[in-house]
Predict the structure.
Amino acid sequence: MSEHQDNANADRSLRDLMGLLALPALWAGRDGAAILQITIEAVERIVPMRFTMVDVKLLPDTPSHIVLRLDGQYIDAAERSEWEAATREWEQTRLPDGRVHLLFTPRQPMRIVRLSMGYGKFGGNIWFGSKQHDFPSEPQLAFLRAAASLATAGLQTARAHHEREQASRAKDEFLAMLG
């Protein structure tokens, strides 16, 4: 690689990193679903991939929030069922977090990376997949890990915001009852 190409790659990587670090500013006042949408779409602009799938619990006493984005389009629940079955199979193989695995998908075998989005009652996973033989490169994997980590922190912030709103409503209702 020439020095010019190295500089161009370094400039692009720095720009991508700055864009990633700016994501939390876009999350202010948004719910968990919006945070995931913003993150997924931002990651797709930086790392070429075929699909992203998220399965995470956003709020207490709600079902898991599942999102599938395939070839740049969000897939509705009816079409997503095959992918949900595939992820259940992937989970049974106990894939180490953050490593690349060649797995079968409803479309074709792909190179897939699973990253954790927390553990416990609010835990979940995010899967990134591509049919490219070199997916992901080391810088791309670092970017995916950072994006998943930031999104997890954003989801925790959205949960805390939701809990504050609920507490405020309960306080207002209590004060209204008092008179």
